[in-house]
Here is the input.
Amino acid sequence: MKALIICPADRKAVAALARRRPLALTPCLGQPVLGRVLAFLASAGAKEITVLAADRPDRIRKFAGRGEAWGVKLEVIPEARELTVAEARAKYQASPAAGERWLPAPHDIFLLDRLPQWPDQPMWESYAGWQHVLLAGLPQAAREKVGMREVSPGVYLGLRTKVAESVQLRAPCWIGANVWLGPRVTVGPESIVEDDVYVDTGAEIAGSIIGPKTYVGALTEVRQSLAWGRDLLNLASGSVTEVTDHFLLGELGPPSRPASSHLLARAAALLALVLTSPLVLAAWFRNAGTGEPLFRRKIAVRSGSRVARPVGDTLVYYELAGLRGKGRRWPQLWAIVRGQFVWIGNRPLAPEAAAQLEGEFDQLWLTAPTGLFSLADAMGDPEDLSDETRAHASFYAVDPGRHKDLKIFWQVIGQAVRGKME
Here is the structure.
């Protein structure tokens, strides 16, 4: 059995949805719209599916491949413009080969302006209409998605999702797979959080959709909007704003920063080491008589690779005895000079602590460079393996950047000036 899908090329009413990728790849409750249609046609008996794409066919082909994920034979054909159903039927069905069979209409040639699961609800007439289609499809989509569970009426949670005890989930709402919801987060009503999203402490999401691989910052409010990466789309007006403050909204992507410091950062660490050298004298006086060495030897798992390092790959660093809080990190300035540490990264983990990291999300901690200061420091989290500290470390690992590093640095320095460092 054969089927053909016509991908939409342009819909002015929802043009902002196509800023990042073709409309056919718009998120739809855990998978792109095209993926949901392919799954439906495959379950209806289609064995060969042709996809006509006038908008960025290379992106369509990269997502769909050859159809292996759906157990079908699939071909993506670029078109100069979007064909109508009648035009596609005349071009691709006019002279069927011997024995060629097609799915019964209307699924033989399917225009992707609605979903076959909900044929009476057009998707691209308005942003609110698109949101309405998604919300109406929550129960059925939950039944079709492996691992999705309804934890209370109208509230759905996906696999490997972590929800703090103080989170409030208000129906209807959908929380996808691999999502982290921090303390005092509120989601709903009428809200969808797609897969691989990090929602930080105290954020509120209402009447909104959070696109995949998106960071929502602490105390950020998202209302009647689509937040996807750094783009914030008002679902009522259609206006789009690019948020430049990474602490409010950001895009989670693969780590891209080398583990070692560049020359200027090393020189700054050497200068700081000299200027703060009186700390050693203060530590010596406080540590005198304790019988403990002034410099405590520590072992940490070496980090900074694009994948988590093995627990046995270690480095040696030191802490200054006799001081409390961040002051004991003074010898780690020398680690920056040597290129073992960076100014801003994730804090070092001992092998026994690294062995406690569970799952791919937690293990992202070890893919970021080892740093003197961390995002958890800036957020006031303790130096332990609490859920908050793990989440901040994992988020930092996938969304590095100089702007964020500067904010973390000045927040930590500001805490020191105000006397709030531990």
